[in-house]
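Listing S7. Sequence submitted for prediction.
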Amino acid sequence: MAPAVADAPAGSTQPPATDPHLPPHRSFADLATALAATLPADARVIGFGELHARADVPGVRSSLSAFTDALPAFGERISDLVVETWRVDGTCGSGAVAATQRLETSVRRPAATKSEIGKLVDATRAAKIQPHAMTVSCADYDKIAPAKGDVDPIAMLTLTTKELTRIARSAVAVRDKQPGHRPWIALYGGALHNDRFPPKGVEEWSYADAVDKAAGGKYVEVDIVAPELAEADKLSRGEPWFPLCASAKQVLVWQRGERSFVVVLPRTPP
C-alpha cells in the first residue's frame, strides 16, 4: 500500500487539517463538496468503493445512501455508472432466487440495501447516466451458492471482479468512439474491488489495474467509509486513516497515494 500523501488535489481550495494527532486530511461540509474538490478533472474512470452496510451494525447511514444524495452535484460529468448488483435471471428458476437470498444472508446485508440500490438507479437515470449491472448466469449461481453446498465467497469475489472489469472496459471502449461524450465512467461497489494498491494476497480481486490500462492511466479510486462500519471491520481498524473515524463530524478526505482517496463520512447522529 502506498504511503499517505498530504498534498491537496489540484483545484482544491480547502485548507488541510492541522491536528497533529490525526493523519493528514482535509475537511468538508458534505460529500458532494468533498468529491468536487477531490476528483481530478482529467479522470476517465472513477471506482467508488464502500464498506457494505451490515445487519449487525444497525442505525448507520450507509455510504450508498450518501453517494446517491451527492450524485446530482457531479452526475452531469458521468456517462455510465456500473453498480455491483444484479437482477435475478428468471430463466434460471427458483434456484437463482434462493442463491441470491443465501448470498445476502451470508454477508449480513440489511433488507434496506435493495431499496437503496433502487434509489441509486433512479438517481442515475434522472441524471441521464446509463446504469449497468452485473450479469450472473445460471452456471454462476451454481458456483457461488450451490444448492447442496455452502456459499462460496471466493467464487463470488472472482465473479464480481470479472464482471465489473468487463463492463467498465466495455463502457470506455464504447464512449471513446462517441464524440462529445461525458468525461467520466463510474463504478460503485465494495472497497476491495477498486483498490489501486491492493494488499498482498488479494490483488486478483481488484479491477483497478485492468481498468486503469483501459482508461489510459486515468483511473481514480475513492473509498467512501461510514465510520461505524469501519469500527466493526477488523481490517479497517488497522488502516492509517482509521483514527479519523472517531472524530468524524464533517466529511474527511485522506489521500492514500496517487489517484487514491479515502472519504470518511460524518458519524450518524444517535
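Caption to Listing S7: primary sequence and predicted C-alpha cells for the chain studied. Strands lie at 26-28, 45-50, 78-86, 130-134, 184-190, 219-225, 251-257, 260-264. The first helix runs from residue 31 to 38.
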